[in-house]
Amino acid sequence: MTILQVFNTKTAEIVCQHQVEINQSFPKEGWVEEDPQEIIQSVYECIERTCEKLAQLNVDVSSIKAVGVTNQRETTVVWDKETGVPLYSAIVWLDLRTQSTVENLINKAPGKDKNHLKHKTGLPISTYFSAVKLRWLLDNVDEVRQAVLSGRAMFGTVDSWIIWCLTGGSSGGVHCTDVTNASRTMLFNIHTMDWDSELCSYFDVPMEILPTIRSSSEIYGYLVSSCLGDQSAALVGQMCFEEGQAKNTYGTGCFMLKNTGTTPVISDHGLLTTVAYKLGRDVPACYALEGSVAIAGAVVRWLRDNLGIIKSSAEIETLAATAGTSYGCYFVPAFSGLYAPYWEPSARGIICGLTQFTNKSHLAFAALEAVCFQTREILDAMNQDSRVPLAQLQVDGGMTSNRLLMQLQADILGVTVVRPTMSETTALGAAMAAGAAEGVNVWNLRSSHLPKVTCEMYEPQINTDESEFRFARWKKAVQRSMKWETTETSHPSHADNPNPG
Predict the structure, then answer these.
(1) Residue 487: pLDDT band with limits 50, 70, 90
(2) Which of 73-87, 241-255, 314-328 is the most confident on average?
(3) Which of 13, 216, 233, 373 would staple 429 via disulfide (CB 3.0–4.6 Å)?
(4) How far apart are CA 88 and CA 247, in angstroms?
(5) How far apart, in whole angstroms, are the C-alpha atoms of residue 91 and residue 216?
(6) Domains of the chain, first to last
(7) 444: alpha, beta or left, given left = phi > 0 and alpha = psi -120 to 50?
(8) What are the backbone angles phi and psi of residue 394, rounded to the nearest 5°?
């Protein structure tokens, strides 16, 4: 979905907004794609409709001082810089077609270690990140390969594609990305803060197709003055500027980031080290530990679209509340393998603990619990890496409007969950960074000037023994989901798929 929101820089309140759905396609098992042309058209539509809404509110469009871009980070696009035409669909971050590519890359690493590049990238070799998607495109799409050979190809994550289009496209568009998005490609060295020739060589990716790397808050082109990957934008929007502060965003997936300050912390417990933000060209970057969960809100959509047990996503709260418990049913939604802390692409979704008594309300409750259990696994790993237990968790994203989910989360974590009443903090973070850019200077990010945001608090309401029992059962279910799928598996549905699984 593309959302455009206009913020008041004094109050951080939304003036108006418009959103447009973007279609996802699933051409083969494990494949997830979007149309880059549809993405940019949705941006144009949002701009036009928002301008109309501002006019209806008697707000002059000229009062908009800056535009920020925030995006799904690892989703990969390659396009022709002469024609402006995408050379293939955008391969979405949770796409699994690269599982065999990943296995080949890990096999050539010393000791077949998936963390072989972690000292430079902060990341394990995984289907998640952009370099393996780009490698697949170079190996499998003739148009991409030919465009690279003839010097016409441009690579980028969605931010690069949008900024290039908004700043002129084939007529002089700016081909850039920011440090937060670059840090999710596996081609970027998080210590030197630049593309790394050795990493590019490892993935056999030509450096000339990569965008220029900029800070997260500076003028890139007319009006556009910030760029942040969605999770970094949410961290800024939650105003987690102090070392040790953390937020969790509940969207399609689930992403917890903890600010570790200006020094990167390399995880020993399956977390990612990522660039949190760099708010200006001459300002040091801040880093974060991140735990990524592939399936959160997507499990609700699956119950709606695939099973039909709810008609709208909002219904799950009511349905789950009628049960009040999963009645021993546990759901591991490993539809795209398991991300942190396991990094196990061979896992698949399972539902276990079923009895004749189990009904759809128990399944709905188990689905919500699954989101909370996955978050608990991340929080535990984060506490082990940083050795400072988190006392409270700031939350945002669409799913946080579900009060049952928020209470479940507090119960399962055993810490206070804090939800701002304005949950769209991702857009707010991009707006704040755009307004604070040098040359724009309409938003002050010093702590004394930050807007005060009203919040709801959720305190744990169950005893620790019950919480630990349920969490132990969940971990048992996770083990059952492991090693389910391999690239060697052969059955009819894989017959036309060169990279099954």
Answers:
(1) low
(2) 73-87
(3) 233
(4) 34
(5) 23
(6) 2-214 (3.30.420.40), 255-481 (3.30.420.40)
(7) beta
(8) -85, 135
**Beta strand spans in 151-253 (E):** 153-157, 176-178, 188-189, 194-195, 212-214, 224-229, 246-250
210, pLDDT greater than 70: yes
Residue found by looking up tokens 């009006």 in the block: 223
Contact yes or no for 379/393 (Cβ under 8 A)? yes
Kindly state the tokens that stand for 491. Answer: 């059955």
Q: What is the mean pLDDT of residues 112-131?
A: 94
Q: What DSSP state is assigned to residue 304?
A: I
Residue 162's H or E segment, with its range, is helix 158-166
Centroid of chain to Cα 318: 27
For residues 246 and 73, give the distance between their C-alpha atoms in angstroms, rounded to a whole number. Answer: 19
> Quick one: which of 419, 409, 400 has its CA closest to 238?
419
Residues 6+ apart with CB under 8 A from 10: 451
**Alpha-carbon torsion, ordered 154, 157, 158, 163, to 10 deg:** -60
CB-based contacts of 236, cutoff 8 Å, min separation 6: 228, 277, 279, 428, 429, 430, 432, 433
459-486 tens-digit pLDDT: 999 888 988 999 999 999 999 999 888 7
Residue 292's beta-bridge partner residues?
A: 255
Distance CA 121, CA 123 (A): 5
Distances (CA, A) of 453 to 394, 425, 435: 12, 11, 18
Residue keyed to tokens 């979007």: 34
Nearest to 165 by CA among 65, 20, 37: 37
Among 204, 277, 188, 197, CA closest to 234: 277
pLDDT in tens, 233-252: 999 999 999 888 899 999 88
3-state secondary structure of 374: helix
Average pLDDT over residues 182-203: 97
pLDDT at 488: 53
Separation between Cα atoms, residue 235 and residue 198, nearest integer Å: 30
Q: What's the pTM? A: 0.89
| pLDDT averaged over every residue in the chain | 92
Report how far apart, in Å, the C-alpha atoms of 308 and of each of 41, 364, 402 are. Answer: 31, 12, 19
Q: Is the pLDDT of residue 498 over 60?
A: no
SS3 114: coil
Which among 354, 356, 357, 369 has a CA at the least distance from the CA of 320?
369
Joined together, the tokens standing for residue 111 give 């000791």
